[in-house]
Design brief:
The complex is a heterotrimer of chains A (about 375), B (about 375) and C (about 425). Chain A has about 375 residues and is mainly alpha-helical. Chain A has helices at about 10-45, 55, 65-85, 95-110, 110-115, 120, 125-150, 155-175, 210-230, 235-245, 245-250, 255-280, 290-305, 310-335, 340-355, 360-375, and strands spanning about 200, 205. Chain A has one domain: ABC transporter involved in vitamin B12 uptake, BtuC (Orthogonal Bundle), CATH 1.10.3470. In chain C, about 40% of the residues lie in helices and about 15% in strands. Chain C is globular and about 70 Å long. The chains are: A mainly alpha (about 375), B mainly alpha (about 375), C alpha/beta (about 425).
Chain lengths: ~375, ~375, ~425
């Protein structure tokens, strides 16, 4: 990545700028390529050229449904990459913020009568959008407040604190805030809230799946661009400095504490946004996906793709979901009989194997493999 | 003046004072919440005793975490899987047709031994196949690898043992029904008598006091024995000292000829054995099932971090504290919220510690590169 | 390192190989049939084979696998045309996201004619909007009322049906029983899942309607080893303990209750109607009373009971197929759902499009399932009632000498 030009009298600053410029242009091209691919796949599904559906391209393994989920989870994982990969802060409770966004959208649109909102208000087309952005702001503020004491911790202590926070939020959601269902049923307990409506703009419904796909990916691509910009700015460099050594960064005058809290809040805002999109996609919200297991899945996708790379987010999510679908649809070819059990073992095995061979994640490791396959010199760090 | 108070807090006496105050506050809270539920003294005691039982298990699991982390820097999320395998294999070995001619008590001991050996071998296999090839990767990568390993473990367990919950007889009675020891007051036909130790409850009699299942004694005894054995191992044997050396400074240990790969193997073996022991003694108290490893694993991890993640005694104290806190919390409030109780207390402890209060200088573990 | 790169390449190639197993024909040469051959019918199944709900989902998977063999000769339609019958089973991992994904795949990729989906209520509700939007009839094996009825408007959902007895019926039995015995205060312990919470809600509603107060209620986890809730139960002074859970949690609670409060009567819900409950609770289960589907006491029923033949048939077939694994009501739900669909398909003519088939199957389910004997009860579906069962699908049962015993009203007394 930094096989830069070597002008004779290159000052280090100039070299850095040139490489930075190269990076930006690589990223721009990459972004354009991804956006084009997304648009193409969406168009195929809608226009059905030659009668082919999108899923036929991958012989039924990837469906539109999966693509939408990939988009939604990309939004969460980008935030996680910023937090873990760039700022170097562990977060084992991210799924809880994802859940907060989902539940906020569900409660404020479905449970209007229960919580005393006028039904005339909540049935407007713009209400779910207002809720979506409102809960983003709320979750961000909440994370900012809660993050202040927690982000004073380092390393494994921080990991545990985020783990604890995540579990606590999950429990509160699952336990209906401590009320019995007879008194007031806000979160619906373990069964959750069904009948969450679909999004629309004015009279134009963003449904069925083919249309929702464009919305989700538009948001995902926006988030990607935003995050890429952050990474290649002063803030990004500050974050990387914090990751490499917080003490040194502090010594250099970087206000590490402030940056950490801001990145934490930003990542939770991404998660909340994704959660709202998820709620309107799934049509029902229940606490199951937001517990510790859910958080670990997010971390897994992040690490698989490569936490130190924004591109690692969509890559990690796509590979994880694609692998699951692949295993689900083809396991009976390898082993006879429908084995939910065998799927689990196969998935675990693949994770272990991939992490052994690409320890820095697919984004970094994959690039390395392609480079050496093409015979180029091995890349130094990013 | 404003500076003197924080300075005082950092001293030993200041730290102990804060800790004492916090503990008193906590107990006050418990009593307050419990009284609104109408709890009496024997019930508080019972909650604490039961919490000590859970705590002992968490302590064992936490020790496994600490051992692996100390030597390799990895947080081994498959630790819970060792507990589960210990429990499941002990059931299978106990019920093995080939062994059915052996009298039950020897069979139980044999099953326990076989199960520990089996799980130990599994730990070795995991280390050699999944950990060693990735040894030079970042800790986060290794953590994900252990997550993948745990997934494989419970998937395989589901395949082998299915979804039915199994049973292991209690060690004392070698039967499903465990012996119950009662300590307290017995009221029968207006007579009040005291019982101390096992006693049958006459029909219609009311009992007020503390009950201890004999399996709990096994759990406490085993934990104590394991701790003693570990202490001896780490203090008196060469291999143990080598392990400790690795924990203190990996590079220095390497320089004096201790092989990090062998130590890593040993650490995993030890962690697997610890997990298996926890699983075996836990099995009669619960119904072993393929996904029982997640909760002890998580709780053990929390306990290990509470103890600082680098200290064995700390892990044990952390485990016991977690068990008691959790049970007390569940008893005085709603059980669904017990995790919240435990975590709030733990996070407060962490935050307070990180400010250097209570005499601990540790500000957390920074990643070594 | 070179070796690493090569191995990585190998792994990638293996994955691509799997991917590229496109039209790998599940080649089966069809022997020429006497009857004319119509389009194959497909039933999609999503059950929780792994995850916390797997103890309910695996018997369902086994039942479907058994039916695959039983119905291997296919279905003859009402016009005499033969149709091959296929089942496609996916695991939803006890995860509502996966349930939705899988339901969507079954409908759009596998183009099933009907769905049997949802071991746990949360998963059924995740699949529900997909079935409704794509106009595919879905039978759920989970018990929440909101699956078939919109909780906000009270409308019955057009495309969704269910075959599981409800916790409401279970609660009604408990209320009737306790009321008859003059009990005024109860404690309720429930497992911390959707099922358990629903049990609490339904039981509370039912007993309150009879003037009985729930003085204490608390949750527990299936994997708990300590039961601090007993302190609360003891302190509240209630007369009877009601438990809403499935084994193993239900068994462990029973054991803990017997130890702490040996004189407290215990009443369970219909989730403990399988042999595991008694096996795991041992002596402690003695004297426990609970409402149960007739499946578990099939051999004790009078011979003229209309359900008895189905129950015995299911018991024999399942036991044979799984080499002696215990039967459970959950597996029975899968049997009921599948046979309802088979009946619906038998009423179809040949030559219909997928859309038409789905609509006709739905109509059949709504209108033609009358006095239909299933393992769960006698089903009577109607446009307003997509559940079809009333509270006498259950009977009250008491554990006596380690076995279930039919507990008729004359014998009711507090233990």
């Amino acid at each position: 990545m930094d096989q830069g030009i070597e002008p004779a009298a290159a000052a280090p600053g100039l070299r850095a700028m040139v490489n930075e410029g190269r990076m930006i242009s690589v990223n721009t091209w990459g972004f354009i390529a991804l956006a084009a691919l997304i648009a193409l796949l969406g168009w195929i599904e809608i226009a059905r050229p030659l009668g082919i559906r999108f899923s036929a391209l991958t012989s039924g393994i990837l469906t539109m449904d999966t693509m939408v989920r990939i988009g939604i989870l990309t939004i969460v994982v980008v935030g996680l990459n910023l937090l873990m990969g760039y700022a170097g802060q562990a977060s084992l409770g991210q799924a809880a913020f994802y859940g907060m966004g989902a539940y906020a959208s569900a409660i404020l649109t479905v449970k209007a009568r229960t919580i005393g909102l006028p039904v005339g208000l909540t049935t407007n087309w713009w209400w779910p959008w207002l809720v979506m952005f409102g809960s983003m702001a709320f979750v961000g503020a909440f994370a900012y407040l809660v993050g202040r004491p927690i982000l004073r911790l380092r390393g494994h202590y921080l990991a545990m604190a985020t783990l604890g926070l995540g579990i606590m939020i999950y429990i509160i959601l699952r336990e209906n805030f401590g009320f019995s269902a007879a008194e007031i049923n806000i979160t619906g307990g373990s069964d959750g809230i069904p009948d969450v409506g679909r999004l629309s703009i004015g009279g134009f419904a963003l449904w069925p799946v083919e249309r929702y796909y464009f919305l989700v990916w538009a948001v995902a691509l926006t988030v990607l661009v935003l995050s890429l910009n952050i990474v290649h700015s002063r803030v990004g460099r500050a974050l990387r400095a914090i990751r490499d050594s917080e003490t040194a960064a502090n010594a250099m005058g970087v206000d590490t504490y402030r940056y950490k809290i801001q990145v934490f809040a930003l990542s939770t805002m991404y998660a909340s946004l994704a959660g709202s999109l998820y709620a309107h996609f799934q049509g029902a919200v229940s606490p199951g996906p937001f517990d510790f297991g859910g958080s670990m899945e997010l971390v897994l996708m992040s690490v698989l793709g490569g936490i130190a790379s924004i591109w690692g987010a969509p890559l990690g999510v796509a590979v994880t979901l694609a692998l699951k679908e692949l295993i689900r649809t083809r396991i009976h070819v390898v082993l006879g009989g429908s084995g939910g059990e065998q799927e689990v073992i196969a998935f675990g095995l693949l994770i272990v194997v991939i992490m052994i061979f690409m320890p820095d994640g697919l984004a970094v490791g994959g690039v390395r493999v392609i480079r050496s396959a093409l015979g180029g010199p091995p890349a130094r760090g990013q | 003046m404003g500076d003197a108070i924080p300075k005082f807090l950092r001293t030993r006496t200041g730290g102990s004072l804060i800790t004492g105050l916090a503990v008193a506050l906590l107990f006050g809270l418990f009593l307050l919440l419990g009284s609104s539920k109408g709890l009496t003294w024997p019930q508080y005691l019972q909650l604490i005793v039961d919490g000590l039982r859970g705590g002992a298990i968490y302590a064992l699991v936490a020790l496994g975490f600490v051992t692996v982390f100390n030597v390799t820097g990895i947080i081994n999320f498959s630790q819970g899987g060792f507990v589960m395998l210990g429990a499941m294999t002990s059931v299978s070995y106990f019920n093995l047709p080939a062994l059915s001619s052996i009298p039950a008590n020897w069979r139980m001991a044999l099953a326990a031994l076989l199960s520990i050996v089996t799980v130990g071998l599994v730990g070795v296999a995991i280390e050699r196949l999944a950990i060693a090839p990735a040894r030079h990767s970042a800790p986060l990568t290794l953590i994900i690898i252990t997550v993948g390993v745990y997934t494989m473990m419970w998937g395989a367990a589901l395949l082998i043992w299915g979804t039915s919950p199994y049973q292991l007889p209690a060690f004392t009675t070698l039967d499903q029904k465990d012996a119950l020891l009662r300590f307290g007051q017995l009221t029968a036909d207006g007579h009040i008598s005291w019982v101390w130790g096992s006693a049958e409850l006459p029909k219609g009699a009311r009992f007020v006091g503390v009950m201890i299942k004999s399996q709990s004694l096994w759990i406490w005894g085993t934990t104590a024995a394991v701790l003693a054995a570990l202490a001896y191992f780490f203090e008196r044997t060469i291999t143990g000292k080598a392990l400790r050396a690795c924990a203190v400074n990996r590079r220095a240990a390497q320089l004096v000829g201790i092989s990090p790969s062998r130590m890593s193997l040993l650490a995993f073996l030890l962690a697997a054995v610890l997990g298996a022991v926890a699983g075996v003694v836990l099995a009669p108290a619960t119904t072993p099932i393929y996904d029982m490893g997640l909760r002890p694993g998580l709780k053990g991890f929390v306990a290990a971090i509470m103890g600082g993640l680098v200290s064995s005694p700390g892990a044990v104290i952390g485990g016991i504290l977690l068990g008691v806190l959790e049970n007390l919390g569940a008893g005085v409030t709603k059980a669904g919220f017990k995790d919240i109780f435990a975590f709030v207390v733990l996070i407060v402890i962490l935050i307070v510690r990180s400010h250097g209060v209570a005499g601990s200088g540790a500000t957390g573990v920074e990643e070594e590169h | 390192m070179k070796v690493r790169q090569m191995s990585m390449l190998v792994v990638v190639l293996v994955i691509i190989g799997l991917l590229a197993s496109i039209g790998l024909p599940a080649a089966m040469a069809q022997p020429p049939l006497a009857a004319p051959e119509g389009a194959p019918y497909t039933i999609g199944v999503c059950a929780s084979i792994t995850g916390p709900a797997s103890s309910l989902g695996v018997p369902q998977r086994n039942t479907i696998a058994m039916l695959e063999k039983r119905l291997a000769e296919g279905i003859i339609g009402v016009d005499g045309v033969h149709h091959e019958l296929k089942f496609i089973i996916y695991d939803d991992e006890s995860n509502p996201d996966t349930a939705a994904s899988v339901a969507s795949r079954l409908i759009k990729e596998n183009e099933v004619d009907a769905l049997i989906c949802g071991t746990a209520s949360g998963n059924a509700m995740a699949a529900m909007p997909i079935a409704t939007e794509n106009e595919v009839p879905m039978i759920s094996m989970a018990s929440a009322r909101s699956i078939v009825q919109d909780p906000q408007t009270g409308e019955t959902r057009k495309w969704i049906f269910k075959v599981a007895q409800e916790n409401q019926h279970s609660g009604e039995w408990q209320a009737v029983y306790l009321d008859k015995l003059g009990v005024k205060t109860v404690c309720d312990l429930y497992e911390n899942t959707g099922y358990g919470q629903d049990c609490l809600n339904q039981t509370t509603k039912a007993v309150q309607a009879k003037g009985i107060e729930v003085v204490y209620s608390d949750a527990f986890e299936r994997s708990d080893t300590e039961f601090p809730q007993m302190s609360g139960v003891q302190a509240s002074g209630c007369e009877v303990l009601i438990v809403g859970a499935v084994p193993p949690g239900a068994s462990l609670v029973t054991v803990a209750a017997r130890e702490t409060l040996p004189n407290l009567p215990v009443v369970q819900g219909h989730g403990v109607c399988n042999k595991d409950y008694i096996k795991l609770a041992g002596e402690a289960a003695e004297g426990v009373v609970f409402p149960c589907g007739r499946l578990m006491i099939a051999d004790k029923l009078p011979d003229d009971d209309p359900q008895k033949p189905v129950l015995l048939e299911y018991t024999a077939a399942y036991t044979e197929f799984t080499n002696g694994e215990p039967i459970s009501t959950f597996g029975g739900h899968a049997w009921d759902a599948a046979y309802m669909l088979v009946d619906a398909m038998r009423s179809l003519k040949d030559g219909l499009s997928l859309k038409e088939r789905r609509a006709l199957i739905r109509d059949y389910l709504e209108n033609n399932i009358k006095n239909w004997p299933g393992t769960g009860g006698m089903f009577n579906m109607s446009p307003e009632d997509h559940m079809g069962l009333t509270y006498d699908a259950l009977v009250l049962v008491k554990v006596t000498n380690g076995e279930w015993a039919y507990y008729p009203e004359e014998e009711w007394k507090l233990e």
